[in-house]
Amino acid sequence: MDSAPSAGENIAVLRKVRGISQTKLARLMGISLSYLSKIETGLRPATPPLVAAAATALRVTTARIYGDPFADPSKQHELMNDLRAVIRRHTLPREDVPPPAELSTSLKKAAQLRADTDYLSLLQLLPRLLGQATATAMASGGDAVAWGHVADVYSCAYAVAHRFRQPDLADMIVARQTWAAQQTWNPSAEAAAAWNEAGTYQSAGEYADGLAIVERAIVRYESAPGNGLEHAVHLGSLHLRGVVLASRHKDKNATADHVRRATALAAQIPTDVLQHNLTFGPGNTALYELAAHVELDAPDKAAEVVGPLLKQPPAGLKPSRVGRLAIDAARARLATKDLVGAEDALKHAFRVAPQMAEIHPMAREVLRVLWTMHQRSRPDLLVMAKRAGLAS
Question: What pLDDT, in 10s, does the model give residues 312-364?
Fold first, then answer.
């Protein structure tokens, strides 16, 4: 089995193809020559802001630097092409309108697969489900609930495109989700679409523009009528997206503001809930604040609080969120030189959200560093590295 190249390895290859020296690229990225050398050789992880800086300097997309997470991607690409075809003909569904009970069951299954991070099974389900949901909505005479279902399916499709690093497809999906949301006349559906739209900017490393999308969506949603649980979930989720974007943009004030406003909204909800594929509540807010500490170069703060959270994750959090918590924990522990703790956190991620752990960029980067440093002495690292395609 061939191993899939890492972000650091791709940076090195692209730099050489462009004829750029390590010294020049390090200067363009705003880091030291030593730091860049360690990223390229697998001794330091390529974090999202650094990947964004490298992509700008090398004039490529962040997806090009992250590369394909699969050593043998043929199966995933075949399924992705099926999804791409359905999304392209979004107003021309070939599927018939299914019985209501069948559609309801499929919608619940898609949401569950997304929450469980079973992306391959979700990818197999999505093309037919998206066609059926669209056919149902188009035959409904403008029923808002039916169009809301279409928007929710597109949200699941975005999760797959995002995780499998298909930025062009993710952009198309967000446009389709926005189109479906606009048919609902439901501000919450439009807020959920804006959450994913900001996510495309986050993936591209365009954090300032992503923050602008979030702020615009927040203003619109706050001016719309409504309150209660649904209002808190969607508005709070927008603030959580803002936490990620602001912290990666190294804007401490904006990060603190979004954390403060999300915390106030989360106080209205006893435990985390999942609505329209958005998870919000006190537990998820704490997870985002923890991740922000890592992004703002304060991993010690994150490492202080991550232990109890991993031992007993907040109630209501699905595997997708617990897996991300474990990945952030691994990243924080690696930054504080707790290598054994970082490995334990990765093991936790592989247990609760295996597909996420195998393909998530930061899981792979932390794993690559640990593997580079201890490949002969830590057999569990070899197991995880093989599962992630980082070792043969």
Answer: 999 889 999 999 999 999 999 999 999 999 999 999 999 999 999 999 999 99
pTM for the whole thing? Answer: 0.94
Handedness of CA 313, 112, 284, 165 (dihedral sign): positive
What CATH number does residue 60 fall under? 1.10.260.40
Burial class (CB in 10 A: 0-12, 13-18, 19+), 15: buried
3-state secondary structure of 273: strand
Provide the 10 A C-beta neighbour count for residue 103.
Answer: 18
- Residue 359's domain comprises 315-392
Half-sphere exposure in the Cβ direction for 119 (13 Å, CA): 24
Q: Which two tokens stand for residue 293?
A: 């500490």
Of 264, 297, 330, which marks where a domain is finished?
297
178, part of any domain: yes
**E strand or H helix that includes residue 350:** helix 339-352
8 A C-beta contact, residue 43 and residue 78: no
Is the confidence at residue 30, as pLDDT, over 60? Answer: yes
What are the pLDDT digits (tens) for 220-234? 999 988 789 999 999
The helix/strand/coil state of 376 is: coil
Instruction: Label each residue of 274-327 as H, E or C.
Output: EECCEEECHHHHHHHHHHHHHHCCCHHHHHHHHHHHHHCCCCCCCHHHHHHHHH
